Amino acid sequence: MKHCWTKAARAALAGALGLLATTAWAEMVDRVAAVVNNEIITLGDAMKRAGPDLQRSDQETAPENRASKHEEIIRKALDGLIDEKVLDQELREAKIIIDDKQVDASVQEVMKRYNFTADQFAQAVANEGLSLSDYREQMRKQLGRYQLLREKVAKLVKVSEADVRSEYDRMAREEGKELEVHVRHIVVQVPANAPQADVDKAYAVAKAISVEARQAGVDFAELAKKRSQGSSAADGGDLGFFRRGAMVPAFEKVAFSLKPGEVSDPVRTSLGWHVLKLEEMRAIGLLPLAELKPQIEEKLRREQGERASVQYVKQLRAAAVVDIKLGPPPQTAQKTP
Fold first, then answer.
1. Is-contact 128 6, C-beta < 8 A?
2. DSSP state of 258
3. How distant, in Å, are the alpha carbons of 117, 306, 327 from that of 317?
4. What is the reported pLDDT for 21?
5. Which one, 16, 171, 308, 335, has the greatest CB density within 10 A?
6. How far apart are CA 181 and CA 171, in angstroms?
7. Widest pairwise Cα distance in the chain
8. Closest CA relative to residue 210, chosen from 187, 194, 192
9. What residue ranges define each of the domains in the chain, with the CATH number in brackets?
């Protein structure tokens, strides 16, 4: 069986499996890692998904801890693939059809984000070992998953006046501890439904920007004007002051964890990868409920939707026949899991 790997996946695979012979490698990646309702997921599938995280872990983890860290990352990747498999199976049952026009629109969005011509886009896809038809089918499947989740979850998301009031009261109790931050950011855009190869490529760009931004004498605002793909680029990536609950959780968590003047590693949102710089942090009072209500409603809807999506996938998985066959990596086979 022939497998197409990104450079990151090749490097991670070498780190995870060690010095194995070529034939042994082929046997390993073709092993059945899990069976979901009679559909197979191979170890190669899991390794390819885990590739970027494996590579990053090798840079951040002590050598003696890498084997166990690799196993943890690969199992997490396999878990995600199982969730996708049960979603895809439910997608077929629900007879949700993503037509060519929807795929075309998403492909055009990717091309626009990266400023690709048709030839450049085709070459980029080929560089990842995919044909254009394969890429389009991956995009079609991803769009279908999002549509399925929207249809199943939308009816479960209900934010009442009591919910808003309760959240506001909670915020009021924390008023003495409430802070707001002044942040600038640089965006490397990649659509939420982009293929993993595009996500990895955008991450590499964002990581390089974060390294550059930390260099002595670099003006973050000027760098944002040159490199950011976000709407705030002309303003040097300036987002002004905002408080907790105003941004998506991943972005907010990083923003409030920084020290003034500190630059973050890339953080992912539905828009793409962001590199943040904290300019200032200050204490604030709580605005009136009338002013905060739209913000609180959006926050609660987002949180309910995320919880409902997770619960829906759990229900699908519980109803499926899932047989996980993945054992410990060869170098840790003698250790207790």
1. yes
2. S
3. 41, 17, 20
4. 41
5. 16
6. 16
7. 67
8. 187
9. 1-95+157-175+289-337 (1.10.4030), 96-151 (no CATH), 179-283 (3.10.50.40)
